[in-house]
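Write out this protein's structure.
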Amino acid sequence: MRQQYSSYKECVDFFESAQISNPNLFKVESIGKTWENRDIIAVSISKNINSHLNKPALFYTGTIHAREWIGIELSLSFAQHILEHIDYDPKLNALLDRAALYMVPCANPDGFEYSRNHFSFWRKNRRKNADGSFGVDLNRNFSVGFAPNKDTTSNVYSGPSAFSEPETAALRDFVESHTNITIALDYHSQGNVFFPAHNFIQEDAVDAIDLNILASNMAEEIKKESGREYGVHMGKPPVHLISGSAREFYYSKGALSLVAEVGTRNISDYKEHMSQNVDENIPALIHALSEVNNYKKDNNLKRVEKFTALNVSSKEVELSWEYVDDESLYFEIYRSKKQKGFAQSSNRIDRTKLKTFTDKNLSSSTNYYYYIRAVSKQRDVKSPFGQMCGVRTSPADNMFSKILYPSADNIGY
């Protein structure tokens, strides 16, 4: 089984070969060394690669847990997709013209190789602890919510201190030196679910709407590709489960940050089974790349404010909102029947320059959820989403009426 999957060396060789054949598109660099002296590589992908720092960027990390091989395999497949489509795919070309993609294909090279060659279900890195045990859970070794843990044999041992590990220190330094990162995706297995970041305080942070819609839009792309349903779960902060995670660290640096749990097992028995999960995630990654421009730090398109329902009847909902007057802008409105729904062209119900909209021909006694964002066509940028407006239409006038028929004895036949 193991021979079907790429080794870390094969991964590095692939990206170095891509850099040689496409020097204006790929850049490979070492951002640190592991305990066992392996290079931790970061790959930058963008057209006119030398200008990547001037573009908003998507940051991808994979296989921070050694046994979760999907991360490294997906990075290779996504890069291969770019190589195969860059010459003729206008959407991909446009995205990489104005955005950059950063990938750390394997954030835990030592642990990954130990998983491949010795014990498949190894999770941690390969630090030799003082008591002779091995490994730190790298996804508990970041600073946000770091929780000390003295049980070095635990699968979630967080290490002697935040960023004590060369792998997490390398990721920290990379993110802090690339302030153009606006979206960060950390790929794990298993579960077929997206976990948006939270602030350890409450779910309703201002950008919770953006996190949920990003995850829902990626889930919708997967569903269109394979029919598979991915969940979206932010939830209340389970501190004891996610203390010191990469996701919250990236979020603390200003990026919209998600964990993607892919597949139904850590390692598929056969690569063809994992390949199904890999293929369905490529459109989702392309969608995430398409959104980085809308969340760049100097985007001065503000959120729509006071997005409310003025009137609700059984068939219509009248929406209203506030925004600065600007003739160059318009608004996109989306409707869903799910509270954590997606917002794509398939459920966009209007584009308007007005600050009111009436949604008609609705079903009575039905929950609807509306999303809105401002758009500048001149600058080719969209605002973050305004806060969701949820309504329930009124019952129909005849919903409780009853038609009475005479009994059979009185019909007369």
